[in-house]
Amino acid sequence: MSEPTKFLLGEEQIPSHWINLLPDLPGEPLPPLNPATGRPAGPDDLTPIFPMGLIGQEVSPEPEVEIPAEVREAYGLWRPTPLIRARRLERALNTTARIYYKYEGVSPSGSHKPNTAVPQAYENAEAGVRKLSTETGAGQWGSSLAFACSLFGLDCEVFMVGSSYDQKPYRRSMMETWGATVHRSPSDRTQSGRAQRRHPTGSLGIAISEAVEVAAQDPDCNYSLGSVLNHVLLHQTVIGQEAILQMQLAGDEPDVVVGCVGGGSNFAGLAFPFLRAGSNARLVAAEPAACPTLTRGVYRYDFGDTAGLTPLMPMYTLGHDFVPPPVHAGGLRYHGDAPMLCGLVKAGRIEARAYRQNETFEAAVRFARSEGIIPAPEPAHAIRAVIDEVERGEAKVILFGLCGHGNFDLAAYDAYLAGDLEDPEFSEADMEAALARLPEAPAIA
Amino acid sequence: MSEPTKFLLGEEQIPSHWINLLPDLPGEPLPPLNPATGRPAGPDDLTPIFPMGLIGQEVSPEPEVEIPAEVREAYGLWRPTPLIRARRLERALNTTARIYYKYEGVSPSGSHKPNTAVPQAYENAEAGVRKLSTETGAGQWGSSLAFACSLFGLDCEVFMVGSSYDQKPYRRSMMETWGATVHRSPSDRTQSGRAQRRHPTGSLGIAISEAVEVAAQDPDCNYSLGSVLNHVLLHQTVIGQEAILQMQLAGDEPDVVVGCVGGGSNFAGLAFPFLRAGSNARLVAAEPAACPTLTRGVYRYDFGDTAGLTPLMPMYTLGHDFVPPPVHAGGLRYHGDAPMLCGLVKAGRIEARAYRQNETFEAAVRFARSEGIIPAPEPAHAIRAVIDEVERGEAKVILFGLCGHGNFDLAAYDAYLAGDLEDPEFSEADMEAALARLPEAPAIA
Q1: Regarding predicted confidence, which is higher, B28 or A19?
Q2: Cα R_g (chain B), whole angstroms
Q3: A116-165, pLDDT tens digit by residue?
Q4: Are the C-beta atoms of A124 and A132 separated by less than 8 Å?
Q5: What is the distance between the alpha carbons of residues B211 and B197, in angstroms, rounded to a whole number?
Q6: Are A406 and A371 in contact (CB under 8 A)?
Q7: Contacts A420 to B, Cβ<8 Å
Q8: How far is A235 from chain B (nearest CA, A)?
Q9: Which of A291, A300, A420, B188 has the greatest number of CB atoms lying within 10 Å of its CB?
Q10: Which of residues 93-112 of B touch A (CB under 8 A)?
C-alpha cells in the first residue's frame, strides 16, 4: 500500500478552539439591524430566543473561542472526520490534479450539521433551558438537533416543512428515534402556522416563524438555527482546522477550496480556517441555478425569515419571501446567505458559481461510481465545481467539502437515472419580483 | 480530553492477510455434499458459478490467505473502521463494565458486506468474468455487491426479495446509482422465478435460486453469495483483526464478544480472529426468535437455497424452505448458518441466544439516544445481548459488532415507536414442519 487514501487524526486532535473570522473581515463591520428602529440590533434583541453563551459567540470580537470540554467530548463520537484523496475519481477524470475531500457524512445524522447542533444544545442546557424548537426542510438540521438534544437531555420540537414531511418520512422517524417531537408545518400548534393554512406544503420561512413563536412564548424553550448566523459559522470551523492538519499529513496544499453554499455554514466551516492561516487558495462557492443567491442576488439588508421576525441582515438576497423551485438540494434553498460569507464574496475573495440540477447529479453519480460514497444533492454542487476545475486544467490540488451522504435522497437519484429530473433556473421575472419585495433599509456602501 | 472514545488505525494497518479458521476447527471436517451422489462436493461442483480464485479460498487448508493489493487499496476507501468505546451507553446503563463496538456502518453501503463484495468482484474480474448475479433481501448485500462491481467494471444483476423491493425502494435506487440492474423476485427472468409466481412476496431462497440460474446459464456471468460460505467468512476476518489491534490501543481485552447471526459472516468476521489469537473470551451469537436457527434448529445436512440447487451443507437448519416471518432484521432471516460457525456452536465454543423483535428495538433506541448512531435491526440483536450481559453483571469488558447503520430501516423504528411492531416467535408447529422437509442426507455424528 504505497499511496494512502485516507488521512486521519486522533481524537486528541479535535480542535481546542473555534476560529472566529469576524475580526479578519474586510471593510467596516455591518451589524444586523432592528427592523423597527433601523438601528443596530444588540444582544438584547436576541435574549428572548438564544442563551447568553451563544449570543456572546455571535458578537465576539475575539479571533478564537474555546470549545467547551463537554462539546469536544461529544464531537469525539464522530470527529475528527476523514480527509480522503479521491484517487479513483482522479483516474476516472484522467487528471494529474490531486483531489481531496473532507467527509462530514460520518456523523450520526449524516452531515456537518451536528458540529453546531451539539454546542447549541450544550449552551442551552448550561443556561437551564429545557427545550429547543427549530425548523427543518429536508431534515438534515432537524435530525442533527434532535441527536444533540438527546445527548444533553433536552426536549426538542421540530417544525418540518410540509412537503418534506410527506416526502421524507425517514427523516421524521430519525428525529423521533432520537426522542424529538415533529410537527408538519404549517401546523395548528402556532398562530404563525394557523395563519398559513392556505399553504399546505409549507416553506422554510413559515417553519422558522412557527419555531420562533414557540420559543418566544415558552420561557423554558429557546430557538435554534442551523446556518447563516455568526455563531453557527464559528462552530463549523472545526472542519477546516482539521482539514489543514490533514492536508499537511498528505504533504499537499490546496490551490482551490470548493464547497456548496445554502446558508453558508458548511462552506465557511471549511474555508475560513484556510483564510485565517493565510492560504492563497482560490475559494469557490457552488450554489443551485434555481436559487442563485450569490451569483444573482442583490447585496442588501433583508430579513432572515419569510414572516419578517428576525433582525435585518446584510447579505446577498433574492428577497426574503422568495420560494425557490423544489430542487432536491433542500439545504441550498435559502433566499439569502450568511453575512460573513457575503462580505467575502463582495470583496472578491470568494468566487461563486451556479449549477443546474441535472449537471450536479451527473457529477454525483460519477463520484459514487468511483469513490463509493453516494453524495447528498447539496455537495453534488461542489463535486460539479470540482470537475469543472479539473476540466479547466489550471488547478493542481483541489480540496472540497463533502458535507453529507445521500442515503435519504435516493428518490432524487431515481428521478435522475430515469431522466425525470427537472432543471429549473432563476428567471428575470423572479429577479424583478425579488427586488420589488425588499424591505426598507439603509443601502450598503 | 482525558478519556478517548474512538480507537483508530491507519490505512497501513489494514490487515495483509485474511484468517482462515478452517484448520483450527474441532473434530473431523464435514465437507459439503453433492446432493445427487451424496459424495463430497469438490471444486468441480463450484466452477460453473465461482472463479477458481474464490474456490481456492473456499477449500484452502492454509491458516492465512494473502489479501491482493487491489483489494487492500479498495478497502482503504473506508477501512480500517473505528472501534468505539460506548461511554455514553455505559453511563445510561449505569454500569462499570466497559463496552466497545466495532462499527462497520462507515462503508459506502453502510454495513460489513463490502468486506467480501470487494474481493469477490476482484477475483471475478481477474478471471475475465463480465457480470455477477446475486440475491438480496433487505438490500445490504445487493447494494454492497453493486458498489464493488462499480469499482472493478463488472455488470451486476440483483434479484431482490419482492417484499423488500416494495418496502425499501431506496436500497434499489442505491444499487441502480452504482450501475446495477435490479429485479423484483420472483421474476419472469428465470425458470425458478416463474415457478414461484404463487409466492409474490418472494423469499431469500427463491431469489438465490434465480441468481444461481442466471449465472449457470451465462458463461460470462458468475454468482456471488454474501454470507455462509467459507470464503465469505474468510474475507470478513479483517473486522476482528483490526478490533484486536484497537482493543490493544484501548489497553483492554474483551471477556465477551457479541455479534448478531444471520448467515454468520459478520459474527465470524469479528470472532474468528480472537479464536485464532487464543482469546478466552466468551462468544455470544444473537439471533431473532422468529428465525432461531442456532438455538432451535437441527444440526443436519441441508440445502443452502430453497430450490435445492446448492450442495448440501452441514449446519443448524430450520429446513431449507422455511420462510421466516417478515421481521425487520432482513439479514437474519436465513434458514441455516455458516457451517464453520455451526461447528463451533456444536462444539460449545459459541453460545447462541434468541431475542424477540420488540426487545431488540428497545435496545436499539437506547443505543441511538446515548451513542448517536441509529443501528440496523440486525445488530440491534447484538445490542440487546450486550445489555443482557451488563444486567447479568459478570462481564467486565464487552466487545460487540455494530455491523451497520439503520438509515434504510427507519420505517421499522416508526412501527416500534408507535407500538405497532409485531413480535413473532418460532412455534412447535414450525419446527415439526421444518423436520419433515429436510432432504435425505447422512446424519452428522
Answers
A1: A19
A2: 20
A3: 999 999 999 999 999 999 999 889 999 999 999 999 999 999 999 998 89
A4: yes
A5: 16
A6: no
A7: none
A8: 18
A9: A291
A10: 106-108, 110
Please give the helix or strand (H or E) that residue A116 lies within, else none.
helix A114-126
pLDDT at residue B285, as a whole number = 98
Bridge partners, B33 (sequence order): B40, B312
- Measured distance CA(B315)–CA(B302) in Å, rounded: 7
Lowest mean pLDDT segment, chosen from A203-217, B280-294, B411-425: A203-217
User: Could you give the C-alpha distances from A211 to A54, A117, A191, A207, A232, in angstroms and in order?
Assistant: 18, 16, 11, 6, 17
Question: How would you classify the pairing of strands B181-185 and B155-161?
Answer: parallel
In whole angstroms, give the CA distance from residue A159 to residue A135.
Answer: 5
What is the reported pLDDT for A2? 58
Question: Could you please report the per-residue DSSP string of A187-207?
Answer: -SSSHHHHTTTT-TT--HHHH
Given a cut of 60, whether residue B333 has pLDDT beyond it is yes
Please give the distance of CA B37 from its chain centroid, rounded to a whole number.
30
A373 → closest Cβ in B8, B108, B417: B108
Partner residue facing B417 (CB), from A108, A177, A368: A177
> Beta strand A131-136 with A155-161: parallel, antiparallel or unpaired?
parallel
Where do the DSSP E strands lie in B242-385? 256-260, 282-288, 298-303, 312-317, 350-355
Quick: pLDDT tens for B81-130. 999 999 999 999 999 999 999 999 999 999 999 999 999 999 999 999 99
Which of A72, A173, A407 is the closest to B411 by Cβ? A173
Q: Report residue A253's pLDDT band, with 50, 70 and 90 as the boundaries.
A: very high
Residue B2 has pLDDT above 80, yes or no: no
**Chain B from 119 to 178: CB within 8 A of any A CB:** 147, 150-151, 169-170, 173-174, 176-178
A66 touches chain B (CB under 8 A): no
